[in-house]
From TrEMBL:
Residues 191-292 form the DUF6596 domain. This is RNA polymerase sigma factor. InterPro entries: DUF6596, RNA_pol_sigma-70_dom, RNA_pol_sigma70_ECF_CS, RNA_pol_sigma70_r2, RNA_pol_sigma70_r4_t2, RNA_pol_sigma_r2, RNA_pol_sigma_r3/r4-like, WH-like_DNA-bd_sf. It comes from the Bacteria. It comes from Actinophytocola xinjiangensis. Residues 23-81 form the RNA polymerase sigma-70 region domain. One of its GO terms (biological process) is DNA-templated transcription initiation. GO terms for molecular function: DNA binding; sigma factor activity. Belongs to the sigma-70 factor family. ECF subfamily.
């Protein structure tokens, strides 16, 4: 360990929590059989780190340190509840003689079941005793480490509603004594769609952060892709799982090109495609090919992966097959009816057939309740208005989009576009 200052230690704790919280909660849930209690114990370990690391130093394996502390707190809780003898047997007799991690403990056993535990945590969070909305919100919280605000924005839902869903979900799981296990074949199908949705929402939060000062959070993307690959190993005959993996890997291939030297966002058509990760593209295309060879119809993730593949195959923006992309979005609207999908279809239609057609579609979405506070609606509309030389209107739309987004980097980008549109309007006026 190395002794560090309080500020540096706190930053380290925050970074470690983002990376390790899901693993810690998953491991604890296997032991205590209560996901709500597991999260509380993990939070206790986080507080201990904030208190101890500035003095004792950051451990070489901070995630395992958190796990060891949380396990010790679990035993202490069961002692206080006078159920030590029964619970210690369930948690592990070896912990009674294990030293607290003032020196590094043996972490091999702690890490050995992490992957399985994470997958079990996904399935317990997506159990049928919970509503679909609660399953997704809880898993985003536990697996992604997202705040209630971030989840609320992902769902275009009020923050108090999301908070209530999470609290009720944890209480329901405890009350129903839901087992911490991967479901059997009989119930796997009904839970798979919800699991895929959760994994992709975690990926999306990493790919385009809804809040904070970072445009991308690669760790969340990596966690989502890893969970997707684990899921594919568990259910290799499920076409849509391979479609999901293809979509995530092709999109993740652009990560390095999506951020400029100063951390500013770089939009798709402005990206240096030489910086796209060809390994991830090839893996994504291979997963898309595997999906296409399986029986059944292409689902939403596979169709979106096919759209992403069109971009990946184009060496320059001009070579993009926008007509095919527009056709794929038309198919996506059929399998996944959504105003957000329709908004993206408008962009594809504008690129294939002109901005007038795209704007016509967008204008039909202006009064859509689900898009009322969705910043991409005015952003897309501003872009289309600018292409039609309606720059004053475009500036107003970009300014409105900047007010709606919570991401600081995106706010700067949109305000800059608003200023440029206003200047252009002045030149033409």
């Amino acid at each position: 360990m190395s002794r560090v200052g309080t500020l540096e230690a706190n930053r380290t704790v925050e970074a470690v929590w983002r990376i390790e919280s899901a693993r810690v909660i998953a491991g604890l849930t296997r032991m205590v059989h209560d996901v709500g209690l597991a999260e509380e114990l993990a939070q206790d370990a986080l507080v201990a780190a904030l208190e101890q690391w500035p003095e004792s130093g950051v451990p070489d394996n901070p995630g395992a340190w958190l796990m060891a502390i949380a396990k010790r707190r679990a035993i202490d809780q069961f002692r206080r509840r006078e159920t030590l003898e029964r619970k210690v047997v369930e948690i592990g007799r070896d912990l009674e003689t294990q030293e607290l991690p003032t020196a590094e403990p043996d972490f091999d056993a702690i890490d050995s079941n992490i992957s399985d535990d994470l997958l079990r945590l996904v399935f317990i969070s997506c159990h049928p005793v919970l509503s679909t909305e609660a399953r997704v919100a809880l898993t985003l919280r536990l697996l992604g480490g997202l705040t209630t605000e971030e989840i609320a924005r992902a769902f275009l839902t009020p923050e108090p509603t999301i908070a209530q869903r999470i609290v009720r979900a944890k209480k329901t799981l405890a009350k129903k004594k839901v087992p911490f296990e991967v479901p059997g074949a009989a119930e796997l199908g009904e839970r798979l769609a919800s699991v895929c949705e959760v994994v992709y929402l975690v990926f999306n939060e990493g790919y385009s952060a809804t809040g904070g000062s970072d445009w991308v959070r690669p760790t969340l993307c990596e966690d989502a892709m890893r969970l997707g690959r684990m899921l594919a190993e568990l259910v290799p005959a499920e076409r849509e799982v391979h479609g999901l993996i293809a979509l995530m890997e092709i999109q993740a291939s652009r990560t390095r090109a999506r951020v400029g030297p100063g951390g500013e966002p770089v939009l798709l058509l402005d990206q240096d495609r030489r910086r796209w990760d060809q390994l991830l593209i090839n893996r994504g295309l291979a997963a898309l090919d595997r999906a296409a060879k399986l029986p059944g119809q292409a689902g939403p993730y596979e169709v979106q992966a096919a759209i992403a593949a069109c971009h990946a195959r184009a060496r320059t923006p001009e070579q993009t097959d926008w007509t095919r992309i527009a056709a794929l979005y038309a198919r996506l609207v059929q399998v996944l009816p959504s105003p957000v999908v329709e908004l993206h279809r408008a962009v594809a239609m504008s690129m294939a057939f002109g901005p007038e057609i795209g704007l016509r579609i967008v204008d039909e979405l202006v009064d859509e309740p689900l898009l009322k506070n969705y910043h991409l609606l005015p952003s897309v509309r501003g872009d289309l208005l600018g292409k039609l030389d309606r720059h004053a209107e475009a500036s107003a739309e970009f300014a409105r989009a900047a007010e709606l987004t919570r991401n600081e980097v995106e706010q700067r980008l949109l305000r800059d576009r608003a200023a440029k549109a206003a200047a252009r309007a002045g030149e033409l006026g």
